[in-house]
Each structure stands twice: as structure tokens, then as C-alpha cells.
Design a protein that fits this description.
The chain is of the alpha+beta class. It has helices at 2-27, 46-98, 104-137, 186-205, 223-230, 244-253, 295-313, and strands at residues 155-158, 163-165, 173-179, 209-215, 238-241, 258-260, 270-272, 276-279, 285-289.
Length: 314
């Protein structure tokens, strides 16, 4: 510290010496012999000479003294920069480690959740498809709109000449078909189908069905004609005929259409409905079956109707 103070004092003396030199130079722009006491015209004393000789050494000493300070400052700044860089790097590393967007645990949870959602969706899809298939295959009973106005009282004669009414068939399941004995093809086909169906129903479900044939051609279908006709199809087949007015009433009760053709003579045909009517034990209408039903369809249809009827009555 003392050396620094002494050097500062020397610097001040040197500065004053140069200041006096400069001021004398400005005041006397031309060197003359008129100012013998000026710096250039007088002899310097010993102290002034020592000051001038020590000035360059002082400047170099100060430069050397300043260089360690600068080196120290630069070193400290570089150390501080290095430390700040290290701290920034460590902080950035810490952020990348601690603050990463996805960790192994979160990734595992994400995969497990996605797999669970996929499995659940797949199961729900399969269950929905099964429900659709089950509902489409199930037989749904629609709302009842009341019974059809089919059937009613009649008074006819059977193939044995006995007078019968609808009451004679109560207590039995009855399958009725309207036709005529001179029918070339349709009536025989339908009666054969009817006879085969009641046999299969008996064998498969044990239900007794009474087959009935009602003629819509009373002019030609006499009792004897009907008796010979029904023997060709089934021993239990009952044939009914009667006078034209009673036949008309029975056909009207069952909503049956029939009409004689325009052919002259006895070789005529009768156009009529091709329908079978299933009647329950009270001789009330249950269901009708058209020409499009084969033996198997007719058999299954009648069995199902009887089962549903009994279930509803239970």
C-alpha cells in the first residue's frame, strides 16, 4: 500500500512538471533567449532529473501492476462465467430430467389405458351385435288389434248325410278348406298337403287336428260325391255340402270368394279362394295359411300357433 502511495506522489510531481512545460510552451511559442528560466533554457536540478528518469519505470511498473489486476478480474469473470455456464447447464440438465413431458411410468399408464379402452370397445361391439342377432331371431308377439271377423254359424250336411253345425266341432282344433270335387289340380294338391300336415302334427307334437272340406259347388257336390272324394285324401277328412243358400252363408262367414265360370253345361269350373283356416276349440279363428305354405311350413305354423294359444291361456 505504501509503494502505491509513493508511486502516486511521483506521478503527481511528474504531471506538474509536464504541466509547467506545456504552459511555458504555449506562452512562448518561439524559443528565445529572453526566458532563461524556462525548462529548455535552464539546467534541471537533481530531483527533477530523478523524476524524469523514474517516469518510464513508473509507467511500466503501473502497467505491470495493473496486468495482474486485470488478469485477476478477467480470471474472476471467466470463473464466474464458467460457474454460471455450469449452473445453467446443470439447471438445463435438471429440467430435462425432472421436467420431461413423458416419463416411463406415464407412458406405461397411457399404454395400459389405451389397451383397456380398446378391449372395452371391442366387448361392447360384440355384445351389441349379439343383441341385434338375438332380437332379430326372436319371435316378437305384436300388439293385438282384436280377432278377425272370420268364422260363424253354419248348417250343412256331412259326407254321411248327417246335419252338422259349427257346434259339432267345438272342443277340437279344426283346419277348414273350401273347394269343389271337380277341381282339376289345385284342390287335390291342397287337400293332400292338409292330410300330410295333420299326420306330421300328430307325430311331432301330439296335437289332434280335425280336417274339414266344405264344397262351394253344391249343384254337383252331392253327399255321395263328397263321400267318394274325401276318401282319396285322408280317413279323418270330413266333407260338408248343403243347399246353395247355406253354402253361401258359410262362405260369407269365412270371407271366402267363389264364382262359377261362364262355361256352359255341367263341365264348368269354380273360381275360389285357396286358403286354410285354423280354428281353435271354440271354433274361433286363429290363423289362415295360403297356398305358398308347403307341408313343413304348414306343420310348424300350426304347432307354433297351438303352443302360443295354450301358453296365453295358461
Amino acid at each position: 500500500m505504501a509503494s502505491v502511495i509513493s508511486k502516486t506522489a511521483q506521478l503527481r510531481r511528474t504531471y506538474r512538471l509536464f504541466s509547467s512545460y506545456k504552459s511555458s510552451s504555449r506562452l512562448t511559442p518561439h524559443f528565445t533567449n529572453k526566458n532563461p528560466n524556462s525548462l529548455l533554457h535552464r539546467r534541471l536540478n537533481q530531483s527533477e532529473l530523478r523524476s524524469l528518469t523514474k517516469f518510464p519505470r513508473f509507467l511500466s511498473t503501473n502497467a505491470q501492476a495493473d496486468s495482474p489486476l486485470k488478469q485477476t478480474t478477467a480470471g474472476s469473470e471467466s470463473d464466474q462465467g464458467k460457474q454460471s455456464g455450469d449452473s445453467n447447464q446443470s439447471s438445463e440438465q435438471g429440467k430435462s430430467i425432472r421436467g420431461g413431458p413423458i416419463s416411463w411410468l406415464s407412458l406405461l399408464l397411457l399404454v395400459a389405458t389405451g389397451a383397456g379402452v380398446i378391449i372395452y370397445y371391442d366387448q361392447e361391439k360384440k355384445r351389441h351385435i349379439e343383441d341385434i342377432n338375438t332380437s332379430s331371431n326372436a319371435v316378437k308377439q305384436g300388439p293385438s288389434a282384436g280377432k278377425a271377423a272370420i268364422g260363424g254359424p253354419f248348417k250343412l250336411v256331412d259326407h254321411n248325410g248327417k246335419s252338422v253345425t259349427e257346434n259339432d266341432f267345438k272342443g277340437k282344433w279344426t283346419l277348414i278348406y273350401f273347394g269343389f270335387t271337380h277341381c282339376p289340380d289345385i284342390c287335390p294338391d291342397e287337400l293332400q298337403k292338409l292330410a300330410a300336415a295333420i299326420d306330421k302334427i300328430k307325430a311331432k307334437a301330439g296335437f289332434e287336428i280335425v280336417p274339414v272340406f266344405i264344397s262351394v259347388d253344391p249343384e254337383r257336390d252331392t253327399v255321395e260325391q263328397v263321400r267318394e272324394y274325401v276318401k282319396e285324401f285322408h280317413p279323418k277328412l270330413i266333407g260338408l255340402t248343403g243347399d246353395p243358400e247355406e253354402i253361401k252363408k258359410a262362405a260369407r262367414a269365412y270371407r271366402v270368394y267363389y264364382m262359377k265360370t261362364e262355361d256352359e253345361g255341367e263341365d264348368y269350373l269354380v273360381d275360389h279362394s285357396i286358403i286354410m283356416y285354423l280354428m281353435d276349440r271354440n271354433m274361433e279363428f286363429v290363423k289362415f295359411f295360403g297356398k305358398n305354405n308347403d307341408v313343413d311350413a304348414l306343420t310348424e305354423g300350426i304347432i307354433n300357433e297351438i303352443k302360443q294359444y295354450k301358453k296365453a291361456k295358461a
